């Protein structure tokens, strides 16, 4: 059937999370006068953050565990002593600073301008409500999207099939007229497929994937499929 609804992931798909996150950490470390080798910190933090997000998706840790645990583990790795109070302040400031810088992946505006006249566009994100809406507003992306579905609103996280059904209901859509576009194989691609969506994998790292899965290495290539 014809695709009428396109559901995008936000972080790592349209919004360049790693670049914006790096800028936020640089700012909050300077604010708190922490003499930290930023490159060394980020080298460990990225992998630790991914581990914590996986646990969060699997409902094994809370939002608070994620926000503070990833910092504590990284400081431990680089052997930098910091109090629990400072970790708490950093976690709060990080969430505050993160949506202030809104670097997007190349071609974001162009592909949305191309799709917007012909499809209903929506967001499905596991990110925190208080951050994701600011990112969308501050980056100028809000105007493109009809419905914004967050895991906090849905009560479950991708790849849980219930969030995809929640999104379909909110958008007044059906799965066989819908496609999910995202970068996370487990959360976005396998999760959406299990809910009956077509999918496009944003394979920016050019990983080997099955030819049965639509895959793009940059956003402009989405035009091949839509």
UniProtKB/TrEMBL annotation:
Keywords attached to this entry: Hydrolase
MF terms (GO), sorted A to Z: 5'-nucleotidase activity
Name of a matching Pfam family: Hydrolase
Gene3D superfamilies on file: HAD superfamily/HAD-like, Putative phosphatase, domain 2
InterPro entries noted in UniProt: HAD-like_sf, HAD-SF_hydro_IA, HAD-SF_hydro_IA_YjjG/PynA, HAD_sf, PGP-like_dom2, Pyrimidine_5'-ntase_YjjG
Cross-referenced PANTHER family: PTHR47478, PYRIMIDINE 5'-NUCLEOTIDASE YJJG
Name listed for the protein in its UniProt record: Putative hydrolase of the HAD superfamily
Species whose genome carries this gene: Lutibacter flavus
């Amino acid at each position: 059937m014809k695709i009428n609804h396109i559901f995008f992931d936000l972080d790592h798909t349209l919004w360049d999370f790693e670049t914006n996150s790096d800028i936020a950490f640089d700012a909050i470390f300077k604010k708190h006068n922490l003499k930290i080798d930023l490159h060394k910190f980020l080298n460990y933090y990225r992998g630790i953050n991914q581990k914590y997000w996986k646990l969060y998706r699997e409902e094994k840790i809370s939002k608070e565990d994620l926000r503070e645990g990833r910092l504590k583990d990284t400081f431990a790795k680089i052997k930098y002593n910091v109090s629990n109070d400072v970790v708490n302040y950093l976690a709060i400031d990080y969430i505050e600073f993160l949506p202030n810088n809104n670097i997007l992946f190349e071609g974001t505006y162009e592909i949305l301008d191309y799709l917007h006249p012909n499809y209903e566009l929506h967001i499905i994100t596991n990110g925190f409500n208080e951050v994701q809406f600011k990112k969308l507003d501050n980056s100028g992306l809000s105007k493109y999207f009809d419905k914004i579905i967050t895991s906090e609103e849905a009560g479950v996280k991708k790849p849980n099939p219930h969030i995809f059904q929640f999104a379909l209901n909110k958008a007044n859509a059906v799965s066989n007229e819908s496609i999910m576009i995202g970068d996370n194989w487990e959360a976005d691609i396998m999760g959406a497929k299990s809910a009956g969506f077509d999918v496009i994998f944003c394979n920016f790292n050019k990983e080997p994937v099955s030819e049965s899965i639509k895959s793009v290495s940059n956003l402009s290539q989405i035009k091949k499929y839509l």
